[in-house]
Amino acid sequence: MASIVKSLGIEGVEGYLVDVEIKTIFGQPMVSIVGLGDMAIKEAKERIVAAINDGGYTFPEMKIVINLAPSDMKKGGSHFDLPMALGILLETGQLKIRRRESYAYIGELSLNAKIRSCNGILPMVIAAKKAGIKNVIVPRTNIKEALLVGEMNIFGFDCIQEMAAFLEGKSEYEPPKKIEVQSSPSPHTVDFKDVRGQDALIAYIVVAAAGGHNLLMLGAPGCGKSMIAKRIPTILPGMTEGEALEVTKIYSVAGMLSGNNGLIQQRPFRAPHHNASTNALIGGGNNATPGEISLAHNGVLFLDEIAEFTKRTLDSLRQPMEDGVVTISRVRYTNSYPASFMLVAAMNPCPCGHYGSSKCKCSDYEILKYRQRISGPLLDRMDIQKYVQPVRFQELSNQAEEGNRSEDLRERVEKARDIQKKRFNGIDSINCNAQMTGNLIKEHCQLDKPGQDLLQKAHDRYEYSARSYHKYLKIARTFADLDGAKTIRETDVAKALMARDLEQENMGLMVL
User: Fold this and answer.
1) How many domains, the chain?
2) Within-domain flag for 481
3) What is the pLDDT of residues 400-416, one digit of tens each?
4) Model-level pTM?
């Protein structure tokens, strides 16, 4: 009878149970690994041979067949080393497990029998819990990440010999000292109080943060677009436990949790350079790994100089922005990753950046070609489009006066988010106004009579698309939430109609 050792695999950001079956057969000595494993799994046999011999055991001179079941699912990663080596020791009788509990095993092996850290520990431990396996053995360096999953018995070891002594009952498990699972978020080093002379714009920044709306800022070089964008995370509300767990799972799969003591508690802020490829932004590679939009899940994706990104790369954002998830298909893998992010972008209004002033020497054709780098459908998905005006000398030189503090702005944002949290309670994947579907808009975006008349007048005159119409309703709903109003008022509609400067300019219109 074949020996079976429990392990776990990863598909996207979700784990699943894998049975590692080992059978020794009399014949020419060789190791055959089947079950649709990738190159890291195929090369495991070399690491296993060296680790078993170096650990004080004897690698059998027989034909060894290792099957990773279910065999019709593609598998990847070096974390199957440990269960495969353990299965060989069990099959050859060199190790006998005295403990009655069932265990799952995760870990890469070094040539000297050490157990190395792996990526994706968190989703795999969650999958073990769902499968009813309460005991998981992981590399000691990954134990803090594994302990994020409650009601589980996590055991961390440094080498095969240490693990074998525990399984045989020769020693008791001694957990590492001073394990701190939860880590407090590090304080922000920037604050909105440093921003001068942009009070009108900051009002819309608060709306964007409160409702999770996408934001596009246009302005001359040095007017403060990047400065403002980098301070947006300081006014965002803290993540719920579920949101934090989702983000941590993505970073775990991407191998970006090294040295982290627990959950990622601050909302992500990702700012890729404008020469980033489509695969870097969306995700891809041989193993269909997550990209920047997934790493920005539940946080902010900041695209500075958005017009310098390639048009193909920018257009690839349209579907994830609409659906909140991205599916990456490659020859060997097809993975789906969460991608619900707040897009914040900054750009110059023309090639030289001084559009509207005497400094600008750009022709109308050059300005048109420059702005056409952002397609209409993508621009339509930017809820708020605001010009950033240059700061006057008097405001810059007044050292005594401070701008709005992030703490005060965040308090307003959190109150609005609390209203939305109650509104969308029990609805999966809907956390803020920007994510509302058509049915939710119809239910929660009720306008008073003056507001209804104003929006109808604007719609009839400017012939908004259905998406733009819904955008205005969502923004108006957020304005109302900031004031604690149950119904969308005329003033909320008026402010929402003034939220899209670039769209109005492109239509040759004046702000209402």
Assistant:
1) 2
2) no
3) 667 789 999 999 999 99
4) 0.92
